[in-house]
Each structure stands twice: as C-alpha cells, then as structure tokens.
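Quick start: what a row looks like.
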Amino acid sequence: MASLAIAGLTGLGAAGFSAALAAPATAETSVLAQTATDTDITLDSQVVDDAGVLSDSEKSEISDLLAKGPKETGVKGYLVFVDNQDPQSLAPQLQSEIGINNGLVIVINTSDRTYGTAPGAKVPTSVTTDVNSAIKENRGDGFPEGGKAVAKVLADESDGGNSAWLWGGVGVLAVGGGGAVVWSKKKRRKDEAAEVETTRSITPGDSSDLAQQPTHALRTVAAEELQSTDESIRKGAQELTTAESEFGVERTRELRKALESSQRTLSQAYGDHQRLANGLVRDEAEERDILIGIIANCGTADKNLNEQAERFATLREKLINAPEIVDKLFQETVDLRTRVPRARTTLESLTSRVDPALLSSVIDNPDIADAEITQAEEALSRARELLNLPPGEQGELVDAARAARMAMNQAASQLDSVDRAEVQLREAQSNLESLIDEVDGEITEATEHAASNAELDRTALAAAVEKAKTALADARSRGSQDPLGTYSALLEADGELDIQIDEARGARNSYERTIAMVDRTIADATARLQSVEDTIHTRGSMVGVTARSLAQSAGQALGDARRMRDTRPKDAFHAAQQANNIASQAAQHAQKDIDDYNRRHNNYGGGSGAGSMVTGLVLGSLLSGHGGFGGGFGGGGFGGGGGGGGDFGGGGDFGGF
C-alpha cells in the first residue's frame, strides 16, 4: 500500500510544496472553497463543538479568549470542532456564509486530526500565520488546550510556547532544519514594522520595488497614502482659493490642474480600496496590484500637489517681504552700473595684446549689460508702483521683481565673461581639442542609451545631443577664429549632456536589474509549472480539472511575461509573479487530488502509520525542493494518544499551508 501511495506522488516536482507553504491566505481560501460541501453547522457562537470534545467550562474559557480578538488583533475568530467532515472545504464555506471581512474560521476534524482555516479579506496574513503556528507548535493535552492556544493568539495573549497539541503528544520534529522550531511573535511584529518602514521609504512611482514588499506592508502604506492624499487635497483647495485671490486665475492654473488631478486620483483610489474592503478581488495577486496602484498613484499625486502648494506659499512669502526685496534689487543695479566702465577698460587692454578677432564673443558685452541693467531698473520702478496698491491687487509684483532679477543676472553674466576673458581665452586655446573629443564620445554613448529599451527621458536626451552636435560642429569649423566663444558654447552643451547621460545610465542600470529579476522569477515559475505538468502527465486521471485549469492559466501568464520581458519589464515581472502564484495553487490542488486518491484506494492516513509517514515524507521532499524530510509531516495524533497508527498522515494534512 505504501509503495503504491508513494508512486502516486512522484510526478509532483520539487517546487510545489514549498510554494504552497508560502501561498497567501486568500489563495488558500480559494483553493479550499473548490471542494466545499453543504453542512448543517451554524456559527451562532465563536466556539462550535459539534464533535463533543469540550466541557462547558472549557468552551466558556475559549469563548472568553476569542471575544477579545476584535479589540486586540482586529480579528473575530470562530473555532469549530467536527467529526468526519472535511475541514479544508468546510472552513471557507462557513466563512462565506458569515461574510465577515475580519473573521477567521478554524475547523478541526477530530476523527482524522486535520484542520482548515479560512480568513476574511481584512484578516492580516500575519495573524493567520500565527494561528497556523500555534496549531502546530503549542503544547497541550488535547483539544481543549489546543483550542485555548489558538484563542490566545487571537486575543494577543499567546506565550509562544513550543508544543504539538495537534499532533497528540508526538511533538514537533525539525528534521534537516538544525533543531527545534522556535516561534517568536514579538520578533515577527518587529520584522513586520521594519518591512512597513522599508515600504514607506520607496518612491511611490517605483512599482518594481513596491512589488517586492510583503502584502501587509502594502496594505498599511496604501491606507497611509489615501489619508495623506485626502489631507493634501483639503489643504490644496484652501491654498487655491487664497492663491487665486492674491495672484489671479491665470497664475494659479498649474495649482488648479494639480488639485483636479489629485481629486480624480483619490476618487479612483477610494473605489479600489472599497473593492478590497468588500472582498471583491480574485486572489492576493490582484489585491497586491491594486495596493501598488493606490500607493503609486496617490503618492505621485500627493507629491505634485504639495509642490504646487509650496510654490505659492513661497510666492506669498515673497509678497510679504517685497519692500525689502525691491530695495535690495535697486542697490544691486547701482553696483552693476559701476562695473560697466571697468569692463570697457578691460576689453581695451586685451585688444592691445591679442588679436581682436579672438575676442569677438565678448566684445559687445558691456553694451549688452548696460541695456539689461536699464530693463531691470524699469521693472523695479513698476514694482514700486505696485507696492502702493492694496493687498489682493499686488499679484503682478512678484512677476516684476522676477523680471528685474533675470535682467540683472544677464547683465552680471555679460560682465563676468569680460572679467574672465583673458584666462578663458588661454584655457580655450589649450583645451578645445580635448573637449571636442570628449563631447564626440559622449554623443556616441548617448545614442546607445537612446536605442536601449530602458525607461528614460528620450526627449531631454535628444535635445541635449542635438545641442552638443551643434556646438561640436561650430567648434570644429570656427574654433581657431573664435576659441573663446566656441569653447564656452561647447562647455555648456557638454554639461547638459553629462546630466542626461548620467540619468540614462541610471535608467539602464535599473532596467538591467529589473530584467535580471524578471528572468529569475520566470525561471522559478517555469520550474514550478513544469513540476505540475509532470504530475499531470505521469498521474493521469488522479489529477482533477482544477489543477489542470490552473496550470493552463500559469502557462498563459508565463507567456505574457516572456513577451513583455524586453519592452515592459515591470509588467513582465508582475506577470511572472502571477504565474508563480497560480502554479503554486495548481500544485496544491494536484497534491490534494493525489491525497484523496490515495485515501480512497490505499487506506491513506489510516492504520498504516509507517506507510503514511513515508508517504508524507516523500511528498514533502518532492514538493519542498529541500530534499530529505523537509516539510513532509502531515496531521498527527490530534487530541493526545501517543505515536501509534495514523499519527503521521500524508502531505495534505497540513490544511491550508
């Protein structure tokens, strides 16, 4: 019998069972729901003892603990003891009937010591994990103590003791793992807090990094982004009203656009959040996609709106300080006027020592500076007129001051060029050729970046390249006649091109990292799917239609990932992740189909303790990918009673792990 059962398992490859252990709670529920059957059990209380294994006092004690759940962990738990029923199908059926998003149904079958859990949409994955850990590891003397262990987790009173109440006193073995299993709820919470902080630190638009974060962290940060965006919109609306009264509708157009965009984004995000709250998602993969979208969209909208609001806050501050600013600008125009005669004297001296043709790019600078200073003085005169107007009519004041500042900066630049002309002339004559070679090489590199599939600002890069090409051609044709002017223009173009190339390099590096991540995920998903396909091929009719359908869907997702790999790597990564999750679900269903077949034909899980134990060990070894005994133990002697026949069931007795 045992050899036949083992033979029925060999088709499942190494990837399946370890993936099943890591499957999200929502995926577990969807898998269990496939086999749901009708039942006359009603969850009229949080403890339902249909098997008659609890005394009145024991039931009362467990009920009191479970009643603390909603306040302490946010989860309302239902513990159900049944006899001769399938807990893996019953748990999700009961969860569906109560329809509580924060409800967690735990069903224990006392006859064969198996169990099933079914969490609602709002039950944190960490709580479900803690319940599963408590079932496996809390020592007790049977069903009553085991029930208390579960209830203490939900009441946040678990002491984390190491035990094996589900296994009926056999104890928990850690074969191949290097020792006994130790569970620390406090450490898990600390780790989860760190994961949330990591998720908060990610730039909202970086979907690839967000996709690497655990679901519980995405839930927390998505809720924070919703709240933050809502607050930003409320403040932004007030800021817009104030800004329009101070600066007018025309100058505040960008702020209004940012506000309206944020309002549309928030409306969509609230709709998505409500879908999650109502449990209207297929699985955890879809939930994660929605959460990442909320974080990315709300975060970006929040950032844009805050930037616009800060801009007008700065303008308002300038209005308040406008009298001092205008006086300071007037004093600077006086200082600039005194530099114009000195610049003329400097040029006269230079033309007596070098060929005047070499100074063609700066020879008119004093005249240009003089004209710019005049423009600044006119703008400042207008600013002083505006200062005498009442508040609310001074919006143009900021523009007048800005125009004066721009004209003064231009004048200062013209005069600075004259002051540095002699030094720059020598520098240009000695360095122009090397700069020409440098820019020529950078143009080639920029062209290579533009031809890649990386997400980069090709418009900005192309503009920088075009400017560099123009300056380069001018330097080659006129460098000997005007070294000062051509060198200065080429140096400016080189600086802008350097900035764009640095950004393009970063984008390509990010693209290549994403491609590597996609390739690893595709390889993992391919291995998992191949294991399932091998099982279907070798075990034939033992594997039902659900596993086959899931395998087909996983293959389609893998195909999508491969097609999008080069041009849309982020989407390809999400598709590969989806393929991985679906392949894991297919492996779970295939496992259950084979377990059911073995129970029907080989008395699986019954009297032959040694045979069933070997079957469980082989299944765990095949599916976990870790070799040896990794992950192979199934449901044991639940409720006490030594290590006799049936204490180690097949690989499926883990419930929804």
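That is the whole record. The beta strands are 47-49, 76-82, 103-109, 114-119. The two ends are 26 Å apart (CA to CA).
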